[in-house]
Write a structure and sequence with these properties.
The protein is α+β, with helices and mostly antiparallel strands. It contains 6 helices and 5 strands. It has 2 domains: 86 residues, Winged helix-like DNA-binding domain superfamily/Winged helix DNA-binding domain (Arc Repressor Mutant, subunit A, Orthogonal Bundle); 61 residues, Dna Ligase, domain 1, CATH 3.30.1490.190. α2 packs across α3.
Length: 148
């Protein structure tokens, strides 16, 4: 998603284009990894030292509402991450050591019989999440740290 398109979405929905809001948007446009709210805050505070984490959260909520970003819940991490909405359905590989995240462009859910699951379990599926957690190549190559 381009930055000018996102700014137009703000305007069409009655939101002002503040410098802080633009900076939060730039963080996502210039990054291809999902970020936590704290990571977004650390990047934005470099240019706007007085911006609060609460302001970042409020703006993330607006960006979600407008469909500009997507929210990812990496349960093993215990926190949400956000990424620019690419418009393409995808999932992620997540390194448990360094946190690096890589998108995978296919959906394993497509190989399941959704209707059968819904019928057997009497459960209407509205959305799904599929993330794979492990160790990236760099972390696997690092020697194991000795503990004393």
């Amino acid at each position: 998603m381009r930055e000018d398109y996102a700014i137009e979405r703000f305007r069409k929905n009655g939101y002002k284009i503040t410098p802080q809001r633009q900076e939060i948007l730039k963080v996502f446009v210039g990054n291809n990894l999902p970020l936590s709210a704290e990571e977004v805050h650390r990047k934005v505070v470099e240019r706007y030292p007085n911006i609060s984490l609460d302001t970042v959260y409020r703006n993330l909520s607006i960006l979600l509402e407008l469909g500009i970003i997507s929210k990812l819940d990496f349960i093993l991490e215990g926190k949400s991450r956000y990424e620019l909405n690419s418009g393409k359905h995808h999932h992620h590989l997540v390194c448990l050591k360094c946190g690096v995240t890589e998108a995978i462009d296919f959906c394993p859910f497509k190989s399941l019989d959704r209707e059968k699951i819904e019928e057997e379990k009497k459960f209407e599926i509205k959305k799904h999440s599929f993330e794979l957690f492990g160790h990236c190549e760099l972390c696997r190559e690092k020697p194991q740290e000795k503990s004393f």
